[in-house]
User: Which sequence fits this backbone?
């Protein structure tokens, strides 16, 4: 693959055989290392957003809900670390998920 970037910082990959060269237009060529660096920067920027943090908190609560079912069905306690993180996630969502 050969990689190109446009003015909006969107990355495109094309076949090396030239069969897609007509799609390149005004894009600039970049290396795979540049692609990886750009993608990492975009990922890091997204992880800093409130949207990401809210989704992570919701995901954690969802992935640990089974502990509450187990407690109700068997009486087996929820581990303290899970309880603490669930409380933290609920408080975070209460403060930020408007």
Assistant:
């Amino acid at each position: 693959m050969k990689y190109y970037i446009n003015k909006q910082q969107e990355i495109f990959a094309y076949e090396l055989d030239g069969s897609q060269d007509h799609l390149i237009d005004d894009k600039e060529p970049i290396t795979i290392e540049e692609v990886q660096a750009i993608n990492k920067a975009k990922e890091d920027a997204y992880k800093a957003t409130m949207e990401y943090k809210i989704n992570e908190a919701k995901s954690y609560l969802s992935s640990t809900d089974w502990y509450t079912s187990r407690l109700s069905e068997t009486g087996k306690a929820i581990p303290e670390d899970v309880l603490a993180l669930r409380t933290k996630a609920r408080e975070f969502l209460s403060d930020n998920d408007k």
Q: What stands out?
A: The helical segments are 32-47, 50-74, 80-96. The beta strands are 2-5, 11-14, 28-30. The first helix runs from residue 32 to 47.
